[in-house]
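User: Can you predict the 3D structure for this chain?
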Amino acid sequence: MRAGRGTARGRTRAAGNGRFPNAVRVGAAAFASVVVLGPVGAPPAAHATADVRAAAAGGHRSAPQDPGGYAFDDAARRIEGTASTADAAELVPGRTYRSTLPASGKVYYRLELDAATNVYASATAVPPPGRTVSVIDGVKVYVEDGEGRSCDVDTASFGAAGSPHPVAASAMREISPRRSLCKEAGTYYVAVERVDPDGPGSSPDPWEMELTAVSEPPVESAGATSAPRDWNSATPRPVAGQPERRPGGAGFAHATPIGQGVWRDDIRPGQTLFYKVPVDWGRQLYATAELGSSASGGSGYVAAALDLDLYNPARGHVVDAGVGYDGGQKTESLAPLPPVAYVNRHAVGRQTGAMRFAGSYYLVAHLSAEVATTFGDGPVPLTLRVRLSGDVQEGPGYAGESVPSDVFTVTGGDRGAAADGTAGGDDTAFRALAAGGIGTGSALLVGLGVWTLIARRRADA
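Assistant: Here is the predicted structure, written as structure tokens:
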């Protein structure tokens, strides 16, 4: 278990050299991420219809009706992991994949890397809805070189709550003058496995996975080799004001954009909501989660009712906070984090090291299924208070482009999406229509309506 402030789940990490991989790290990075999932909550057409309604209303769509459902990336390609590295399918940066994780044993995928990039592999495990899980079960991710040597390993478990929900682990291949392994160009492997498939309550079913790969180019100049030690570590007062309704998304690819402000939604027991916050170089992110009072009339206490996790643009875990619940309003804030800076990767601490890129940071909120036992299965009010401080600074000066090209940047479109709740530059509805298989004529009619509403909203702004 990973001890710490507000901890609601377990986490362990070990580098390939036997030390925690929080030591000094230098160089550019390529990223592979794995999202381990349960069955999809709603069919593509249902997701598409929800996306269209949300886009027309000026917001992103909410999670599927099934509290445990996960919305896959519409562009994900199906591949299969293999029991042997000899047959491993390649993960190409910039693409998204869908695969399956068996109940036992590792599955392998292949990365072809040059001598200038690193790799981060992240996995978010979500067992099938309605099943129980072992408190120590979860997902374990490895990055290994062609000789079978470990570049990095990370493990995440479901923790004391014992509620099936997304938990993320990340492992890396990072080039550094202080690391002798995993620096050469060649073939590397991402391995994924369950942590405790035979534990009490663990589901024996295979889990679905969403995999992505992202590359980060090297910098033109190495610059500083240590993380800043002086930064504002005080926790400011949470943002006040009237909450704005902003339904959460049902997966990383469908995360609802938010910025500084007070954001409101309802969350059901067993449900997980995804939000993303654009955080530029030099900016500092603060977030507080608040569960509102229950109208059910139930009494009791759920020690690990809400889990709020923060992930960086490569879907690497940063920090989490847990909220206990007794039916009255309760709040908890994420631990203070340093301003986003390239040199944070040289920090000894894992939290600071994860704040190494600009881009979209993900806030993922899960309400434990146990809440239903005491307070009923109705929704509980959820409020997120998000603050961004500090001046925007220049980036590190990359000697090339990342893949995808905008993953480590914050654009005007990102800021606009965070302000009005749309996603993907107002093309969310059209991607959903394509994924749902709606006919061309219907798509044109609905699309014209959506674009008209969007144009009117911008004209009124």
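Helices lie at 44-57, 350-354, 371-375, 412-420, 428-436, 440-460. The radius of gyration is 21 Å.
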